[in-house]
Amino acid sequence: MLKPQCVSRCRAIQPRLRRGLTWLNCQPGPSIAYLQTYKPDDPAVASTPDLSAKQKKILDSALRVDQAGELAANYIYMGQMAVLGRDPLTGPLIQEMWDQEKKHLAVMNKLQVQHRARPTIVWDVARIAGFGLGAVTALMSREAAMACTEAVETVIGEHYDDQLREMEDLPTSHPSVPLLRNVVREFRDDELEHLDIAVENYAQRAPAHALLSTVVGAGCKIAIELCKRV
Amino acid sequence: MSRNVLLQLALPLVETHGFTRQVLARSVLSLPTHEEPLSETAVSALFGNGSDARRTLINAWLDDARRQMKSAPSPALKDVLAFRLRFNEPVLSHLPEAFALLASPSTAFPPLDPMPALKHAAKVADEACYISGDTTVGNAWYARRASLAAIYAAAELHQLTSPHTAYTFLDGLLDTSSKVESSLGEADLFASYIGRSWAGIIKSRGIF
């Protein structure tokens, strides 16, 4: 379940989406601490908190599944671009969302190193499956590609929301924990914006939309559970 | 008195007494309040029955040795791993027996348990990667740790039989592995050039 204020926030930004996408990257979120303003000496981005074995396990699996998710998302957009990249309307739209996923993956890679989390063992599976999903839905139609984005981002948004709740157990005394939570919150909002972009671009006009989003959503949920464990 | 404190006090005694229950019993003697070593029952209650207590001690020693790795003279991989090997030196005569004990399981099956040894090498490799500021992700993360674990395990086995040549052996292995890594990278680059030129030829032929 998504928090109501988050959904209403996303509804509020919808009119802006119609006007254009260029504002997407304008406002730097908390993740900027890992990118442009990255300071290797700052304990918030360079050290990991002292955790109990149970908390460490939660953090480990959270970072592993997030990294795998962002990796797969990158490859989904790459697959869509490979098919729809030359489309003058859809190409720039997908490129814009892909650029944001690239940023997410860069941050997740840094978080993995910082918190000494193990990356998923199905790294290549995530890449290939992501690319395949993106390319296949894009081959079906432009609307099907958007429906795929809609289904994926719905599941990812919910997953990030659940994760924020799990992270409430982590001690906030270490500066990296509040930053991590803010980063996850920022990413969740980004993913929900992608969801809105997909809906704005007629995702729900895709043929067999309900079937498609059920299949893709279920696949994402299975992948999330798998990456949490391995 | 906390169990971990006693384990910490027991570690310096390993050098003279080996990884024995006796070391655990005598750990309390370092405290000013105790004059008698712990009874066998107390050792069993605190650290485990029979040789399980020795396993606890060995694991505590391995954990401590791994924690010390961060005080290596430089964060280079070579120095970190060599520093870890140097930490073995005082207890070298007791190590073969310790590793043998870790490999022999407390239950009858399986007859030989390789997991503790593999875990030990993997943990050392992970720590060395962390200290050297390794930033690999994905498959490279696994490849790097697996190769370093294999190198460290080989060097440590070498050290058990020939302590003085272990360091040059370690350096040699690390050099070989970085050579293999760079030639694999070059082969990969070359293959991608060939692939791209073929793609270009096929495109210009107008087949698709």
From TrEMBL, chain A:
Per UniProt, Fe cation 2 binds at: 101, 153, 191, 194
Q: Which GO terms describe its biological process?
A: ubiquinone biosynthetic process
What protein family is recorded?
Answer: Belongs to the COQ7 family.
Cofactor-binding details, from the entry: Binds 2 iron ions per subunit.
Q: Read off the HAMAP family from this record.
A: COQ7
> InterPro entries recorded for this chain?
Ferritin-like_SF (IPR009078), Ubq_synth_Coq7 (IPR011566)
Q: Which PANTHER family match?
A: 5-DEMETHOXYUBIQUINONE HYDROXYLASE, MITOCHONDRIAL, COENZYME Q10 BIOSYNTHESIS PROTEIN 7
E.C. number, please?
1.14.99.60
Hey, which pathway is this one from?
Cofactor biosynthesis; ubiquinone biosynthesis
Q: Supply the name of the protein.
A: 5-demethoxyubiquinone hydroxylase, mitochondrial
Q: Where in the cell is it found?
A: Mitochondrion inner membrane
Stretch forming the signal peptide: none
Classify the protein's membrane topology as the record does. Peripheral membrane protein
Concerning SUPFAM superfamilies, the annotation shows: Ferritin-like
The UniProt keywords, alphabetically, are: Iron, Membrane, Metal-binding, Mitochondrion, Mitochondrion inner membrane, Monooxygenase, Oxidoreductase, Ubiquinone, Ubiquinone biosynthesis
Q: Which Pfam families match?
A: COQ7 (PF03232)
- Residues binding Fe cation 1 are 70, 101, 104, 191
Q: Which GO terms describe its cellular component?
A: extrinsic component of mitochondrial inner membrane
The primary gene name is COQ7
| Keyword Oxidoreductase among record annotations | yes
Q: Name the source organism.
A: Sparassis crispa
Tell me the superkingdom of the source. Answer: Eukaryota
Please give the subunit comment from the record.
Component of a multi-subunit COQ enzyme complex, composed of at least COQ3, COQ4, COQ5, COQ6, COQ7 and COQ9.
Q: What does this protein do?
A: Catalyzes the hydroxylation of 2-polyprenyl-3-methyl-6-methoxy-1,4-benzoquinol (DMQH2) during ubiquinone biosynthesis. Has also a structural role in the COQ enzyme complex, stabilizing other COQ polypeptides.
Q: Which cofactor does it need?
A: Fe cation
One GO MF annotation is: oxidoreductase activity, acting on paired donors, with incorporation or reduction of molecular oxygen, NAD(P)H as one donor, and incorporation of one atom of oxygen
What's its catalytic activity? a 5-methoxy-2-methyl-3-(all-trans-polyprenyl)benzene-1,4-diol + AH2 + O2 = a 3-demethylubiquinol + A + H2O
TrEMBL record, chain B:
- Tell me the superkingdom of the source: Eukaryota
The biological process GO terms on file are:
ubiquinone biosynthetic process
Involved pathway(s): Cofactor biosynthesis; ubiquinone biosynthesis
Pfam families attached to this UniProt entry = COQ9
CC annotations in GO = mitochondrial inner membrane
This protein's record includes keyword Mitochondrion:
yes
The record's InterPro entries line, in alphabetical order, gives: COQ9_C (IPR013718), Ubiq_biosynth_COQ9 (IPR012762)
Coiled coil location: none
Q: Name one GO molecular function term.
A: lipid binding
| Keywords attached to this entry | Lipid-binding, Mitochondrion, Transit peptide, Ubiquinone, Ubiquinone biosynthesis
Taking every annotated instance into account, which residue ranges of this chain make up the domain COQ9 C-terminal? 117-165
Localization recorded for this chain is:
Mitochondrion
The primary location reported for this protein is mitochondrion
Tell me which family the UniProt entry assigns to this protein. Belongs to the COQ9 family.
* Role played: Membrane-associated protein that warps the membrane surface to access and bind aromatic isoprenes with high specificity, including ubiquinone (CoQ) isoprene intermediates and presents them directly to Coq7, therefore facilitating the Coq7-mediated hydroxylase step. Participates in the biosynthesis of coenzyme Q, also named ubiquinone, an essential lipid-soluble electron transporter for aerobic cellular respiration.
Q: What is this protein called?
A: Ubiquinone biosynthesis protein
Q: Which organism is it from?
A: Sparassis crispa
